[in-house]
Amino acid sequence: MDQSSVVLSQRVAEPNSDISQIPKPALPKTSHRLCLVMVRPYVPVRTTGTGEDVMERIEADNLAFLVATRDIGNDGGPSIEVHTQVGDKDVQLLRFDCFRVRPHYHYDPNSMDEEHNLDTILIEDSLPWALTQLRQRLPQMVTHAGYPGVAGAIRITSVATGLDEVEAFFQKESAAQSA
Fold this sequence. Notes:
Distance between the termini: 49 Å
Helix content: 25-40%
Strand order of the largest sheet: 1-7-6-5-4-3-2
Order of helices and strands: EEEEEEEHHH
Structural class: alpha+beta
Shape: globular
Low-confidence stretches: 1-53
Radius of gyration: 18 Å
Largest sheet: 7 strands, antiparallel
Strand content: 25-35%
C-alpha cells in the first residue's frame, strides 16, 4: 500500500443501532514523517481531585487561551486551547498539543476534531511554531475550524497581547521545572 495516500473505509450505522459496535478502520503503520488527519476523543488535561481540568485562562478580546502542561503517559508538554463564546456556549476552536513525542494540533477539537501531526524533523520545537501560527494565521485557522464569524471579529492587537501572556506562562513553567 502506498503510504502517501491512505484511504479509510466508512460504515454508516442503521437507525437505532449501537454505534459502539461499528468497527473502527485500522490505520496502516506509517513513518512519523507522514502527516495523517485523525479523529480522536479529547484527552483531558491534568485534573484536580474533583476531575476538573486545571488550566490557566488568558482573555484576549473575543477569545480566551487556556494553557497548561499536560502529562499523558510517556508523552505530554505545553497545550494551548483557543476558546470563544458562541451564544451562551463556550466553544473550543483550536488546540495545539506541543508534546515531546507526538506534537500535533486540532481544528474544532470537540466537534469535527480534525487533527494534524507535526513533522518533528522539520519542526524541532513545537511551542514556538504553535505561537507563530497563532500570531500569523489565527483568523484563517478559526475559519477552517468552521467559525468564520468569530474569525472576522478577531482583533490582532488584542490577540498579540494575549499570546505574549501565553508565552510568558510557558516560560515560567519551564523555569519552575528546571529549578
